[in-house]
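Re: weekly structure request thread

Next one in the queue (160 aa):
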Amino acid sequence: MMNALQNRIFSKVAPDPNSGCWLWTGATFNHGRPQLRMGSKVVLAARVAYMAFKGEQPGDLLVCHKCDTPLCVNPDHLFLGTHADNKADCVAKGRQARNRGEKAGRAVLSEAQVREIRSIYAKGGIGSEALGREYGVTGRQIRYIVSGQEWGHVPMRAVA
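Done, posted below.
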């Protein structure tokens, strides 16, 4: 038998028969995370669901998802963890967003330009500051590029 809070939560979910997730149909905020108003506060619905169905207070711990579905509030898919636990779970599952190179939001250069810079620099005759001015970046950026400290995912090729 469900209590009033459990009924309230369950009234705002659509169970997914394939995954077992309880997909939140109520309000969301902060990048689509489910929310629930509790008195004058707005709280994360997964946190409330965890407390309501598991009977445990998370305290300072995060309520994390085993299923990696942000809209899921199924207490069987939730677990408590620290920020480090959550990050480790993210890395273990290969979920960390890593936009690098051209996909990075603030990228100035393309991979082709990085290869050109490395080739030109390797031939000599032009320093990092001048090369940086030519490509619209700093001399320090050029040094990081040619050393592989940045744009390391672009293969370092031997120059003929």
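The first strand starts at residue 13 and ends at 15. The chain has two domains: 4-92, 101-147.
Next request, please.
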